[in-house]
Amino acid sequence: MKAEILSIGTELLLGQIVDTNAQWLAGELSGHGIDLYFISQVGDNRGRLVETLQRAWNRSELIICSGGLGPTDDDLTREAIGDLLEEKMIVQEPIANALREYFSLRNIIMPEKNIKQAALIPSAEFLDNPIGTAPGWWVSKDGHIIVAMPGVPHEMKQMWENQVVPRLKPLFPPGVILSRTLKILGKGESAVEEMVKDLITSNNPTMATYAKPDGVHLRITAKSADETTARDLIFEMEIKARTILGTLIYGDDDETIEGVVGTMLTDRNLTLGIMEVGTGGMVAALLSEAPNSINFLRGGLVSQQRSMLAGWGVDSNMLEKYGIMSREVAEVMATAARRQTGAEAGLAICVSPGHGEFEGKPAGQIIMAVDLDGHLESSELNYRTKPSEVKRLAAVFSLNLLRRALLK
Amino acid sequence: MKAEILSIGTELLLGQIVDTNAQWLAGELSGHGIDLYFISQVGDNRGRLVETLQRAWNRSELIICSGGLGPTDDDLTREAIGDLLEEKMIVQEPIANALREYFSLRNIIMPEKNIKQAALIPSAEFLDNPIGTAPGWWVSKDGHIIVAMPGVPHEMKQMWENQVVPRLKPLFPPGVILSRTLKILGKGESAVEEMVKDLITSNNPTMATYAKPDGVHLRITAKSADETTARDLIFEMEIKARTILGTLIYGDDDETIEGVVGTMLTDRNLTLGIMEVGTGGMVAALLSEAPNSINFLRGGLVSQQRSMLAGWGVDSNMLEKYGIMSREVAEVMATAARRQTGAEAGLAICVSPGHGEFEGKPAGQIIMAVDLDGHLESSELNYRTKPSEVKRLAAVFSLNLLRRALLK
Q: Which residues form the MoaB/Mog domain (chains A, B) (predicted)?
């Protein structure tokens, strides 16, 4: 069964709201194994609405609409479905009364406009909406199904779960779809794809790479009649991927780089001190998102000024000789961070985040160093992107440098 | 001119990401008075991509695409446009070399598949992308324009503003729509709306409130035949709004709370030291986004551990007596932050961000204090929301506390 999502409302075309309904519904459909090929947003215009519905009708068996069920003249989803199927809307008295009751409960006289929310076409049945005035429509005709739900997200979600899913269940393909994500730091998306290119050709499970803020995500998705088989399919593929990518993989599914590093530190009974230049404390901020950070994160020191750094134990002669933006100084800073906070591990990061040069290095320069009980590691790279992005990358990469040092 | 937006990427159809690009572009188009009738999301499938482009071509003169410009095999926007116009892609050597350079700068050999990012069809020209590897395409043929931009939001936005808008300008309809945003901290959205309710009824200019991460935004939008009239309309309305809201307004349009505070400090020749508990350095991170932060931001100290705080000059007896999460200690911390960094101003923030209690205060507790040359100000509040949100709010509110202290 092919499905299509239509989000209806002129406010979507004016950019006044972002279409989170479509995203949520798309997730639901893929979770139930229904193929979704198209999502469209269309305004409150009867002609264009019918045109869009007609196209969806021609290429999809299941059309899921949200929005346009309100009482006002520009709520036209019902009318458009009626036009499409050439059926007239008829007011259903019981529902009309329930609607009047809903208003009288609030001591409001129902505006007569609202009566259309109690109307149906012959091919439609109501989808109950206990938390709003607009009931949905379930339309079934000629092997096609049209679902019309309110645009208000929480009304739509409740209607989907309680009214729509039970009706759709018999149409869901048998079996389950499971997916698992492996998270990678240390290589870019195309490099990772290159490494696993032989696996990506697989059909079940499928494998795909995504560039994300916390690295490259490798998603393995398996379809199967039963959960066990799906799990096995994923497991076999995961083994192959891990064999190729090894420690480039820092975590999976809900794991985060800050959480992983936090756990490694906690397991090894290590505390950490951080010194940051040019990130404004982004590394500490990110790491503080990790559970237990209160225990393992001793403290963070943030400045871009040589005098402050010297005050925190960074050798002034080194600053003089190499400048802040050097691996030499970054390593001294890592040690200073460790000593200043009385921690076993020290992490230093020096970033040139601005638009111009900083300490003789171009914008986007990232230098990081780790001092693990005296063992030093450092690395240097450059990213050409906006300052806030450089800082975020620097934070993620420096935590990965620390992770790799802890692996040894 | 009729426009249409296509957002390209299978992750949109799987519900893995929400399509914020379409919303942002829709807002841009309506701001420039261009009619947008359709938005579609389509997956990384060459056939369906061409089908969708063909339909857009048939009904719209301007087709704006984002996504599918990456280097990998499932990035097919260029190929699909080539199919639609029956034109072959040809690699452009100068761009190919620039691309190789970009990689060698980062000491990486460019994966050969990236070369397609340097290819064009005859009807296309490149849209420069200084902050990413994928240049965009500007395609002009038979009275139609196709714009292809990267899916990465900040790359897309910069390309739109610097490359696309200038090329589209001649096509914009006469008459202008101008808008101006006033940014407010210190009152919630409904309170602000209540204060300006008499102004919100106006039709031209219109006025609307939006709850945003950096406070309440009050947007004034005016339509007019000429820019001067539109500006005047906005100006009159802005005066009225400012009369009502006064110093609750911290900035306008592109101004940020960190930028405003940074400018105030710079103008007054003041430097700042920050001490943060429970935010992981969020305040320093935010403030470091301000221009010149390198000059006025002396340093930031981040920890959740009493022993560290004591080491930074926070009186241990006070910590003993009141605990970290108290206005008494926050004020001592503000002074310690000032002294430790040798700054004129000290800002302290103590947050209980976790899910449980911290130092006897419930999750969501935010205590902040400012020491301005010895004058102390502090405040305390509680927000019931997720930890990352609490930290963000704390950072914004503490900068507003500093702003208000600087106003005196």
A: 4-171
